[in-house]
Write a structure and sequence with these properties.
single chain, about 230 residues, 8-stranded mixed sheet, about 20% strand
Amino acid sequence: MTRPIAILGGTGPAGTGLALRWARAGETIIIGSRDSARAQQTAAAIQQKAGPQSQVSGMENSAACAAADILMLTVPFEGQATLLKQLKPSITEGSILIDATVPLAASLGGRASRTLGIWQGSAAQQAAELVPKEVSVVSAFHNVSAELLNGDAPLDCDVIVCSDDPDAAQLTRELAAKIPGVRAIDGGKLENARIVEQITALLIGFNIRHKGHAGIRITGLPPQAYR
């Protein structure tokens, strides 16, 4: 039995897309939401798309935290701090929190193609200050199109993974590689997350101008860099 993955704020496009891809790959998925009924409805819809052998359930966010030690955070920046403060007592010691939060200016009424300055340096570093000290924070999945994740075709993109915990980073890269077409790359320490988060705003600008679903590919590295 695989370790369950709880996707917090999992009813949005990014959450459902990751849930769908991982469920198809055989992972056990828990959709977390403020509303347990909505979580269950979303889980049922994902399971229908993923197939009868998939394992997808839905719970309220705090229950999802208590049921899993791999947590995937897919919420807008304006909800990140509030949610993590609420969930802190429910996050078990030794958990891994994978954070895909991007501090887009749009969250405060600005342009979606700009990021906000974060005192800690990045949204991921802010998350690290908000969760229990025994929790490893990983920054990943910022630059993957949510719309493409919710489809059936392989993706054409790389996922840059940043963390101060090498084991948590390795697990996250393995999860990323389960998505067809995705390669995962070690992006170094968590402090590098600020760079990756800013790339998202750049890609949003591309998508607005060219009406596409831009991703990134890192070239010129040896094959072992993508393992």
